Amino acid sequence: MGYVFTPANNITLTLDAYQIDIEDRIILSNQIVGADLDSESRQIFSNASATKAQFFINGPDTRTRGLDVVAEWSPQISHGTLDTKLAWNMTETDITSDFRLQGLLNGLTQDALFTDRDRDIIEAWQPEERLTFKLDWRLNRFIVQGDVNRYGRYLSSEGHGSRYVSQQDDAAFIFNLRIHYDITPDTRLSLWGDNITDEYPEKNTISNARSGSIKDIVDSPGVFQYSRRTAPYGFNGAFWGMSLKQRF
Fold this sequence. Notes:
Elements: E1 2-8, E2 11-22, E3 26-28, E4 32-33, H1 39-47, E5 52-53, E6 56-58, E7 61-73, E8 81-97, H2 110-113, H3 116-123, E9 129-139, E10 142-151, E11 154-160, E12 163-169, E13 172-184, E14 187-194, E15 212-214, E16 218-220, E17 239-246
Antiparallel strand pairs: 1-2, 2-7, 3-6, 4-5, 7-8, 8-9, 9-10, 10-13, 11-12, 13-14, 14-17, 15-16
């Protein structure tokens, strides 16, 4: 369902609401141990010289609900042109029903195939909301583009089977900037910065492997200081660059 409003020639507002229901959503199973299955299934594992396996299977039913609100404004200014855009998105995905184990998987518990951590991957690993503001200013040969992104809170979890722990990460603002100068109609010099405030996700408190020190050899806070899986803006901090493009 969507609506578009144009209160003025240089202002546009859009509103979109959606609901997506998926039956028997395809998931990647947890590791299945052949010894936990019936004799027929164990023989299949034995023939393949395997002790464990993972499968893509039809899993639970899910429902995704969301709302998109976008406002665009191009004000009249005395120097150049200016376009602005403000966008907000809210999306929530929930598991609405469990699934039935059939065939060779019959007899396993659902937790053996689909753990609480697997549920978190669907329901909580992504921020439920995001706010974005974009600006595009152009004057003669100059173009300045900037955007601010606010990512909502999200969850990361680690572990195996029923033994897992989770960590709540707070919302964060990320600023990006682009400056272009057209030397000629076919030559453009660009400077840019991503995450210019050098924002990092919260330190990993649940799966930072092998932290410690050995005198005169190593002093390490751990291998994974930041979650490898869930940070929506990465964990490399600020990135700056420059380019020169020539069109032939």
